[in-house]
Amino acid sequence: MTKRSPTGLGGYQKLGTHAVLIMLCLPFIMPLVWMVSTSLKSDSQIYVKEGEAAVAFSVKNLVPSPVKWDNYPAALKTVPFAVYLRNTLFLCALTVIGAVASSAIVAYGFARMRFAGRDALFYVMLATMALPAAVTMVPTFALFRWLGWYGTFLPMIVPSFCGSAFYIFLLRQFFGTIPEELSEAARIDGASEWRIFVQVMLPLAKPALATCALFQFLGTWNDFFGPLIYINDPSKYTLAYGLQQFLSNYGSMWAQLMAGACIFTIPIIVLFFFAQKTFIQGIATTGTKG
After folding, report:
1. 107-134 burial code (b ≥16 CB/10 A, e <16)
2. Contact, 36 vs 64, CB < 8 A?
3. Comparing C-alpha atoms, which of 211, 104, 215, 99 is closest to residue 157?
4. What are the residues facing 48 on neighbouring strands?
5. How far apart are CA 212 and CA 102, in angstroms?
6. Which of 96, 132, 134, 177 lies in disulfide reach of 287, CB 3.0 to 4.6 Å?
7. With the C-alpha atoms ordered 257, 263, 267, 273, is the resulting torsion angle positive or negative?
8. Could you tell me the pTM of the whole model?
9. Peptide bond into 66 cis (omega under 30)
């Protein structure tokens, strides 16, 4: 009896599937490839002539020659990247703590506690997710300016401590999948509602909490409109806003600008690869019960 070759019909189907997926990914990968390639060129190498026009992207000009590694230290010296990084990490740390902690508390209340109007309040909270940010931008700005917070980090930090509708929904669905018997057993042993939340529910919700933390970190890291609206001091710029200022002040230095963009992108890519297992687990284990 002859053994079937591992590269049979099934192997060719997998190979074809992967080839199609790679082709579909190319339009999304090419801007990243162009950014990295441009960051390693001199400004004179970026544009090449094809016919009568000068183009910035050409397959034959994709590989830089020679490679200009000094664009990266030059970009770090042109603008205060260390200051921008410090401000960004400061905002990321506080907003992650605030958003995850406040959302978990509210989600536990919606999932486990019984009180009048609970479902109505939950639906009202969900309805806020449908409001475009542009609708509330002007009144929110007026409120923070009246409070004297304009020009500080407070407008970007304090709202995160009031919970996020999306995170509350995500965590509420997760808490709803945890068996009620665990909470009942803790109550029989004399545990308070707060102790049940801290010692029973939170340890079980680590994947969902990590997912919310990852979403919040990425949102704060990439936030451009928050610093644009509320920050007017260059010493408080974040990386996203600092790159835009780089473009405004040094628009002709494309190689250094792309080097700065690569530096800005690297932490996000590294974080995704290290956290993708936790992220997928958190999404997959978030139930739809409730």
Report:
1. bbbbbbeeeeeeeeebeebeeeeeeeee
2. no
3. 99
4. 55
5. 11
6. 177
7. positive
8. 0.81
9. yes
For the stretch 256-266, pLDDT in tens is 888 888 888 88
Cα 201 to Cα 221: distance, rounded to the nearest angstrom: 29
- 37/62 Cα distance (integer angstroms): 6
Region of 5 please: left (phi>0), alpha (psi -120 to 50) or beta.
Answer: beta
Please tell me the chain's helix, strand, coil percentages from 3-state DSSP, rounded to the nearest 5. 75, 0, 25
**Using CA atoms, how far apart are residues 105 and 280, in angstroms rounded to an integer?**
23
Q: Which two tokens stand for residue 165?
A: 């509708």
- What is the per-residue pLDDT across 207-221, written as a single tens digit (0 to 9) for each? 889 889 989 999 999
Distance CA 54, CA 52 (A): 7
What are the structural domains of the chain? 9-68 (no CATH), 75-284 (1.10.3720.10)
Under the phi-then-psi rule, with left for phi > 0, alpha for psi from -120 to 50, and beta for the rest, what region is 117?
Answer: left
What does the block give as tokens for 8? 């049979």
CA pair distance 108, 168, nearest whole angstrom: 9
Would you state the pLDDT for residue 78? 82
pLDDT per position as a tens digit, 25-74: 888 888 888 888 888 888 777 766 555 445 555 556 677 778 888 888 88
Token digits for 97? 């703590």
In one-letter notation, the amino acid at residue 214 is: L
**Mean pLDDT (whole number) for 92-99:** 95
